[in-house]
Amino acid sequence: MPDFFAPKLDPLHPQRHLDALDTPFGKRSVYDSVSYCTRCGSCQQACPTYLLTAQETFSPRGRNQLVRLAAEGKLNLKKNRQLAEKTLNTCLLCGRCTQACAGKIPTAEHMLELRRTLQSRALPRLLFGLLSLHGSHPRLFSAWVKTGLWLRRLGVVTLMRRCGLTRLAGLQWVNHADDILPDAPDRPQRTAWKQKDVLLQQEPTLIYLPSLEADFFMPSVALSTLTLVEQKKHRVQIWHNTASGLFEYVYGDIRQSRRLLRRLINRRAQTAGGSLPLLTDSIDVYLFLRRSPQLFTDWPRWRAKAEELAKSVLFVTDVWPRARLTQPDKETRVRLDASALFTREGAPFDKAHKILQTQFKKNFVECLYKDADTPAFGYSFVRQNLHHKICMSAVQGIARTQTGTVFTLSGLSALELNFYLKRFYPLAQADHLTRLNG
User: Does an H or E element contain 140, and which?
Assistant: First the structure.
């Protein structure tokens, strides 16, 4: 019997937490993982929030020490809840610190464990409830989105903003959602997507799991992805309106995230013998599914299935054709916005970098490690945040290098960045990487 038991952040509610984290150096408990931080400071100059605040509390090593002290019982989270929530909600979960860390300490995962301990609802209550429907009641969620877009086209949201209704508590998020979403999804592209959907589903060789943005707001991303797949001679089965469990993992209940992953695993097992690869256009969904086995540490059979799912996941860069897709504009400079959850390194990022470098050659702008990225996966809707300053830092970097087009690996990041570019640097635009295909 071991004579040492790793302290836990929330020992009274173990079902809310991960038992172990999968790291490049093997499985570690959350306490072991956070204890590997030597406070060397390598992460500080890579952390966007630390660069803006210069406060140790909002540096990665400061966040790790807060989690460690709380687990050891040296910091009472109830008495220091306000500080803990501010430290938590200013973390972008971007993984820049992990990239800079020699020990690859997953600070983003530690912050999510802290959120589960505090039972902190980072998103406004109404927004959280509506987005939760995507996993629990997908048809109701689809109906809500379509109704919301219809009311927006009728001018109801604009009227609410003029009347000041969106300034009421719990409705401020409506303003930002209205700002970043496209005026109206392109109907011809959506029609073309549906036609491809019918033609490509017979005897599929690939499953396409579109992101929430591609499914409802950016049909051009889905259409471009299908065009890439066609060039690789694949036949596709599209899983419309299907939750991956990522939203629940980041903002909600890890148990619901686990249930949605089981549903995804079972559905894949029932499709064409369970051997088809699973393609997504969202780097955040890709990274989550790749690390999904750590949700099933206590269930060996399900962990084995999750590992099989993780191995089958593809990002759009994995189906990229070798032939050049477009003739680059000699006057336009491009760059890659590598914003993502958990990490910013690995095969998808390397391939995206190589694709743009090959396509645009000297017109491709190499980014510095200090250059800000667009905060990923809805960070703009989190309270007590530095979202505006971080996005402005990204715009300043784009303007400084006179970049014309910024390619992202997530549709939501493209929407966020485009909103700021239109306001403060209209000479540039942001787009998803798949849009290189036209």
Answer: helix 138-153
